[in-house]
Specification:
It holds the Pfam family FMO-like. The protein is of the alpha/beta class. It is built from 10 helices and 23 strands. Bound molecules: flavin-adenine dinucleotide and NADP nicotinamide-adenine-dinucleotide phosphate.
């Protein structure tokens, strides 16, 4: 009986075109570009909506950090009446409109469990499990586009004693607002963009945040004298070498923010852009947290030694009473958990080749959105991938039309 049920819930689907895994901005961008090339495709998404990172795993006060022209997806700019830095709600609206305009209809609630290239038939076999019902589908396709993102899973570090701490512990991806933390002493672990903004939000809700800074961090103002810091860097990089742009950015940051080291925020020895290029570490673009650090409303504390019930011992031996902990400790790719391939992706789930060569692997494998360059990097990848697949698709459909009946136009056939 069990065997019979198992048999009844398995299906096999032939996809005439690529399978795209993930309906975040990257997967949607590839879909829109493929539409223009006339190539059919299927998008598989584990969540029940597009852009699930933005819709379900980000805090309420989030805004795009970069001006909107650097965050738009291919073929559709942001509406003119959107502000320079759209808020989360506006960005999601833009993505919903994008999906509608290009008629992108992902298959929701289908989590890819494995994908493997079958040498014998020269095709990819992509297995999904439904997140709603006990059913599995195997998709068979010639091209596989990995669009599951650099932030697919949260990083939860193992910290001694955390299990016996007793208070609430949650990751930044589960944090919505400081509303529920009023009057509480909150330890925010991590000082990336998430840690800084969560700490600021907690302050704005009358909580008492202490932010753990265990190493070094580059903090830059979001704007320098009214102009976006990112845009300034992009312009400077056209004319000057990276190291010199870094030096100029740090001088400008010093003029705007002052010396941040005296507040416990030690800068790395490598400049912010060089560090981003070498290690993918994003500088913090400050949107107000630094002012709260200067005023003492956000306390900067060193690394954690261990937790005890209701308190934490820090690396310098100090003890802090703590009610709640927010782990703003970052994210990781989940590609190694499902893609059975060891050539193109490294063990940490990021392509081995850096930008601009990180988009194309062997045997019809592609990656979009793994360049550590946010939405603008994803848009560049998407256009390249669609062009590459579109070229082969057009050549082959032309041949097919000439010599035999045209059978390749249907999106998928089930058997
Ligand atoms: C808090 C936060 C703020 C950010 N702000 C900015 C910003 O302002 N500007 C910027 O450029 N970048 C920003 N980023 C970076 C962010 O990664 C990109 O903006 C963007 O979301 C990347 O899109 P993506 O489609 O590559 O990945 P994601 O948005 O993560 O989408 C990947 C999709 O794949 C799905 N998926 C994952 N695994 C599977 C599976 N096995 N099967 C099926 N589906 C799967 C996920 O559910 C998800 O919907 C931010 C990131 C975070 C965490
Ligand atoms: N508004 C926005 O646009 C916005 C907002 C938030 C996030 N983002 C983006 O989202 C991505 C993820 O950002 P993020 O801030 O969530 O993650 P992140 O940049 O990876 O930062 C993680 C932080 O956690 C620290 N950390 C990790 N483990 C730790 C431990 N055991 N003890 C103490 N500290 C620990 C790291 O310190 P070390 O450096 O010492 O490892 C680092 O400071 C980035 O690309 C970021 O730019 C954008």
């Amino acid at each position: 009986m069990a065997e019979r049920e198992d048999f009844l819930t398995r299906r096999c689907v032939w996809v005439n075109g690529p399978v795209i895994v993930g309906a975040g901005p990257s997967g949607l961008a590839v879909g829109a570009c493929l539409k223009e090339q006339g190539v059919p495709f299927v998008i598989l998404e584990r969540a029940d909506c597009i852009a699930s990172l933005w819709q379900k795993r980000t805090y309420d006060r989030l805004k795009l950090h970069l001006p909107k022209q650097f965050c738009q997806l291919p073929k559709m700019p942001f509406p003119e009446d959107f502000p320079e830095y759209p808020c989360k709600r506006q960005f999601i609206q833009y993505l919903e409109d994008y999906a509608q305009r290009f008629e992108l209809n992902p298959r929701f609630n289908e989590c890819v469990q494995s994908a493997k290239y079958d040498d014998t038939c020269g095709l990819w076999r992509v297995k999904t499990a439904s997140t709603k019902a006990a059913s599995e589908v195997e998709y068979i396709c010639r091209w596989l586009v990995v669009a599951t993102g650099e932030n697919a899973e949260m990083v939860v570090p193992e910290i001694e004693g955390l299990g016996e701490f007793g208070g609430e512990v949650r990751h930044a991806s589960e944090y919505k607002s400081g509303e529920n933390f009023r009057g509480k002493k909150v330890l925010v672990v991590g000082c990336g963009n998430s840690g800084m903004e969560v700490s600021l939000d907690l302050c704005n809700h009358n909580a008492f945040p202490s932010m753990v800074v265990r190493s070094t961090v580059h903090v830059l103002p979001r704007e320098i004298y009214g102009k976006s810091t990112f845009e300034t860097a992009v312009v400077l990089m056209k004319w000057l070498p990276l190291w010199l742009v870094d030096k100029l950015l740090l001088i400008l940051a010093w003029l705007v923010l002052g010396n941040i080291e005296k507040y416990g925020l030690k800068r790395p020895s490598m400049g912010p852009l060089q560090l981003k290029n070498a290690l993918g570490k994003t500088p913090v673009l400050d949107v107000g947290a630094l002012q709260k650090i200067k005023s003492g409303d956000i306390k900067v504390v060193p690394g954690i030694k261990r937790f005890y019930p209701g308190r934490v011992e820090l690396a310098n031996g100090d003890n802090l009473d703590v009610d709640s902990v927010i782990l703003a400790t970052g994210y990781r790719s989940n590609v190694p958990s499902w893609l059975q391939e060891g050539d193109f992706f490294s063990k940490n789930g990021i392509p081995k080749q850096p930008f601009p060569n990180s988009w194309k692997g062997k045997a019809g494998l592609y990656a979009v959105g793994f360049t550590k360059r946010g939405l603008s990097g994803a848009s560049l990848d998407a256009a390249r991938i669609a062009q590459d697949i579109g070229k082969v698709w057009k050549e082959e459909t032309r041949k097919t039309k000439k010599f035999s009946a045209c059978h390749r136009r249907c999106i998928s056939q089930q058997f």
